[in-house]
Structures are given as C-alpha cells and as structure tokens.
Design brief:
Chain A is of the alpha/beta class. Chain A is 22% helix and 34% strand. In chain A, strands 1, 2, 5, 6, 7, 8 and 19 form a 7-stranded mixed sheet that branches. Chain A has a 5-stranded parallel sheet with strand order 10-17-11-12-13. In chain A, strand 24 and strand 25 form a beta hairpin. Classes of the chains: A alpha/beta, B alpha+beta. Bound molecules: flavin-adenine dinucleotide and iron/sulfur cluster.
Chain lengths: 418, 116
C-alpha cells in the first residue's frame, strides 16, 4: 500500500468494482479500492438467488456469479484492493482515513474519491410497533446473511413485515430450508417488490400476502412467540376487529433501504433529502469537486445491472477529472414535480456531451400515464407508461440536442391520461 | 377453452402473459416480450419448472452458493433440498463446478461462487 493514489474508491461492491474498471480503462490506473468485508462483491455475496445480469450479460446469474465477472476483470488489471478495511472518514482535501487489522488507523491522499458504500436497511426502530422487544426479530438482509453466508437458520415459524424484494426472497429461502412462513404483510395496497418475486417466492409455496396490513403486536418474552396483524384504513391506522394472530418464533422486516452516507455527510458533501444520497451532476460528481458517487450509496437501485452502468459513468468521470482537471459546471436544476418522488441527477450541465438519462420513482401506482420533463412551458421529453409503480425505478432520456433548449429548472411530472 | 393469466418469472420485466388452453393443450400464448416467455408459459401449464438456488455446507463451515444448471420441477424443490442438505463438500470450489451430478434428470447442481 502507498500513501497516495489518484483514485480511492470507498466500497468494493458491484458499484465500486465497476467504477474501478471504468476509471482504469479510461486512463486513471492508480486506484485503491477499500472494502470493509473480507472479500469484495458487496451484498451480492449473500444474494444467492438468480436473476442478476439479464440486461448486461443476457443471462440469469446468481449474485456471486455476477460479482465474479467484475472481480476477475479487476484482478486482471492488477487494481489494488484493501479488504477488512473500513473507511472512517475523508475531508475536503481528499485525505481518507481508514482502519484495518493489518495497518491500524492510517490515511491516504487521493486526487479523486468515489463513494460506493451501498445502502443499509431501515430498522424496526423507525417503525414503532407496540409490544416487547424479544429476540427473534431481524431485518430481512441480516437473515439473508445468516442463512446464505453463515449457514444458520434464524427460526422455524416466520412472519414477514414488508413485501420488499429481500423479504420475498427470504420467504422462499426460509421455506426451502424447512421453515414455515405464515404470512407476509404489507401496509401499502401494493407490494414494493417485483411481480415475479410475488409469483416465484410466495405463490409457488402458497405463502399468503396480506396487503393493507401491518403488525400491531409482537408477543413473547425473551423470544418472539407470536404476532398480531391488522388491516389498516386509508390513513394507515389499524382497523379494530380485523386482527389475525400467528404463532411464530421469528419476525423479519423488509421495510426498505436507505443509501449509506454517514461518511459523505461528515465530509460535508451535500445530500438530497429525497434520495438520502449525494446531490449529483449527470456525470455523478457530487457538489464537492472531485468526489463522485454511484450505486446504492447514491440511489437505491432495483437491478444491479443499472448499478454497474451508473458506476461506469462515475468511474469515467473520475478518470476525466484526474487526467484533465476539475470540471467547471454550468448546470440547470432538475426537480420532481407532480406524482414523482425523486429525480436523479439533480443537476445537469448545459453542455453535457451525451444524452442524459433521468432516473426517478413515481409516488404511487398509476395506470395509463404520461411522464413529462418540462422547462417553463416547453416540453423537453415525454414517455407513456401503461403502468408505473413506486417499486420500479423509471428512466427518461433527455437527448443532448434538447439540453440547449433548457434555460431554467427542468421539472419531471406524471399525468394520468384521460 | 380456458384463458389463463400468468406472470413470467424469467426476468425482472415480469410480463403478463395470457394463455389459451384446451384440454391441457396450449393453443396460444400472448403478452410475452420474448421467446423465453412463451416457453415459460407452455411449461407452466404442463409442469412448472424453476431453477433452484441454495447453499451447500463445506467441511470448513463456509457455505457455497449453488444452483441447478437447468430448471427442475417446481414440485420436487423441497425433496431436492433434503438431498442437497444431506451433503458436505470440500473446498476449494470454483463457479461451474458440478456439486451433484444429475440431481434431477440431467439437471446438475453446480457451484455459483468461488471459495477457497
Ligand atoms: C440486504 C440486501 C439484499 C439485497 N438483495 C438484492 C437482490 O436480491 N437483488 C437485487 O437486484 N438487489 C438486491 N439488493 C440491492 C443490491 O444492494 C444492489 O443491487 C447492489 O448490490 C448495490 O451495489 P453497491 O455496490 O452500490 O452496494 P453494496 O453491494 O452494498 O456494496 C457496498 C460495499 O461497500 C462496503 N462499505 C460500506 N461502507 C464502507 C466503509 N465505510 N468502508 C469500506 N467499505 C465500506 C460494504 O461492505 C459493501 O461491500 C439488496 C440490498 C441489500 C441491502
Ligand atoms: S417474456 Fe421475456 S421479457 Fe417478458 S418477463 Fe419473460 S423473459 Fe422477461
């Protein structure tokens, strides 16, 4: 290990690996990847199910197989990786502080930094469920790590709160390992998971999905012994006399992911309140010059294929920064309008040399709708959708030649067609 | 004639597929975006097939991710799990290594992770 690198990448998940490859292939070869775990691959190492890589490799790969394709390429280029090393912080001068069992606490000077720390799961704490706090309550991701990496079953009789993909995947996984999954309950009227996961993880095994339901009581002292679920009204308030009770020893929470950004926050990188990730330009540079972000640390992606695409863009931009120097941005803002939860990037350079792909999530389930990007009364781009749901990330392309027509804020909104 | 609605699980698009069936025979498949969807729908009517993904124990205590290299019968997944959980293997393994040959028919169980 040296004490200075052109590029330091924080996080060796799919985002960090793809960013490293693309920076290297675009001429920035002096790279250090810092990874907290004992191997790279990130969360993919515990995602043993298949369905990864269909867009990119036209094959249905498991998580570790997808990660391996990138690990192999990183190794071929001899890119330096420090595992079992946790980044503690970095500052405006791009001095990165990290700690490892081998080197203790140390610093490295970087010219550019890429944030690729992934995301973390929302915890039960944020949910406020009455009842005691016995053992046997896990986030779905933690349970996934127990079962798939450590080979240890957290329980035998399971109820899952939240119908995110990880919860659905774990319903099947635990059933295959011999557990009885009594119910998946979802407070919204729709599942936030992919339809295919409802079919192949719940329907295949006859596991009931209760929409508009939440857990209203957790019983047990020492260990969970049961839960009560209730239907909720349109204001998400439990409706009396709709209670159903289950005996179980385990409760899994799959209630959403949040970008991991404590590091960015303490380094003063401005974050978006909507995405909980950094505010970025279309090239994935944050408002702190020379600091880039990608993957789930920037916005929570459904598909790792898009994580890799975004990371390649960040890697390329970082290489450009290292080789050509800082970009002078002359950008307009991009904002969410009606029925849109967030849009990324939040800033777009007027002279961007490539088409700009907007990523966004809609705020509810809409059928037969039109998504519009407008500036004042000028319509810049539109797209029709037969169905749009908050569970699936949407995209809209703004062609380069249209960028010149934008002379103020670009607003993205969704209208339901009559 | 019977009309059956299916969700294709072959990729994250999750296309809604309509199948027309008469006396167990598939007459038509519509709504699929690609040919895999058609095959999926035909199988789904006759005998639903799934790729099984799970883990296998090793003597060092690490778990190796594995999958069937072809879809297996949905109905046999739980009994195949018993077979898979009964074995313990040695490391190292590489992606693609056959862990159990002909697990069901000519579908093998193969490793999907490199572990030392
Ligand atoms: C529990 C869980 C399960 C998921 N399951 C699926 C799924 O089934 N299918 C799917 O398509 N997507 C799934 N996802 C989404 C998946 O995370 C993304 O598709 C993809 O892995 C994101 O890549 P990433 O590199 O941005 O983040 P990650 O894969 O999370 O990688 C981030 C890496 O950064 C490291 N890191 C974080 N902080 C530090 C630090 N301070 N210092 C050093 N290293 C650090 C972490 O150890 C990790 O290796 C899941 C996410 C979670 C949280
Ligand atoms: S039909 Fe093709 S595109 Fe549609 S879900 Fe199936 S595999 Fe995917």
């Amino acid at each position: 290990m040296k004490n200075n690198y052109d590029l330091v990448i924080i996080g060796g998940g799919p985002a960090g690996l793809a960013a490293a490859l693309s920076a290297y292939d675009n001429g920035a070869k002096d790279i250090l990847i810092i990874e907290r775990e004992n191997r790279t691959g990130g969360i993919l190492n515990q995602c043993i199910h298949n369905g990864f890589g269909l867009t990119r490799f036209k094959e249905s790969l498991s998580g570790p197989e997808y990660a391996a394709r990138f690990k192999t390429e990183v190794n071929k280029r001899g890119i330096e990786i420090l595992t079992e090393t946790t980044v503690l912080g970095f500052n405006k001068d791009k001095i990165v502080t990290a700690t490892s069992p081998v080197y203790g606490i140390f610093t490295v000077q970087a010219k550019a930094i890429i944030l690729a720390m992934g995301c973390r799961e929302r915890s039960r704490g944020a949910l406020n469920i009455p009842g005691s706090r016995p053992a046997g309550i896990y986030s779905a991701g933690t349970a996934q790590k127990y079962v798939n990496v450590k080979g240890y079953m957290p329980g035998k009789e399971v109820v899952i709160l939240g119908s995110g993909d990880i919860g659905l995947i774990m319903a099947r996984r635990m059933t295959l390992e011999g557990a009885k999954v009594h119910a998946v309950c979802e407070i919204m009227p729709y599942s936030s998971g992919l339809k295919r996961n409802i079919v192949q993880c719940l329907d295949d095994f006859g596991i009931p999905l209760y929409l508009n339901h939440t857990i209203t009581e957790i019983r047990g002292e020492g260990r969970v012994t049961g839960v009560t679920i209730s239907q909720v009204d349109e204001f998400k308030r439990p409706i009396p006399n709709t209670e159903k009770s289950f005996n179980c020893d385990t409760v899994l929470f799959s209630v959403g992911l949040i970008p991991e950004n404590e590091l960015a926050k303490s380094a003063g990188v401005p974050l978006s309140a909507r995405t909980r990730g950094a505010i970025v330009y279309q090239n994935r540079e944050t408002l702190t010059s020379g600091v880039f972000a990608c993957g789930n640390a920037l916005q929570v992606h459904d598909l790792v294929d898009f994580v890799s695409d975004e990371a390649e863009l960040a890697g390329r931009s970082a290489a450009e920064y290292i080789i050509k120097g800082a970009t002078i941005h002359d950008a307009f803002d991009c904002e969410n309008g009606a029925n849109i939860n967030y849009v990324l990037p939040q800033k777009i350079d007027k002279n961007a040399s490539e088409n700009v792909k907007l990523f966004f999530r809609v705020s509810n389930t809409f059928r037969n709708c039109t998504i519009k990007a407008v500036c004042g009364d000028k319509v810049i781009a539109t797209k029709k959708r037969l169905i749009a749901t908050p569970g699936e990330m949407e995209t809209l392309i703004i062609p380069t030649e249209k960028l010149k027509e934008i002379n103020g804020t670009l607003t993205l909104s969704l209208e339901v067609n009559e | 004639m019977e009309k059956i609605l299916l969700t294709c699980v072959e990729c994250p698009m999750g296309c809604q597929i309509q199948v027309e069936v008469e006396k167990g025979e598939v007459l038509s498949v519509t709504g699929n975006t690609c040919p895999r969807g058609k095959l999926y729908a035909q199988n789904e009517i006759k005998c639903p097939m799934r790729v099984l993904t799970t883990t296998v124990k090793t003597y060092d205590g690490k778990m190796v991710a594995v999958k069937t290299d072809k879809p297996v019968k949905r109905e046999s997944m739980l009994s195949l799990m018993k077979k898979i959980n009964a074995i313990t293997i040695d490391l190292p393994v590489k992606i693609g290594d056959i862990i159990i040959e002909n697990l069901e028919g000519d579908a093998n169980l193969i490793a999907t992770d490199d572990l030392q």
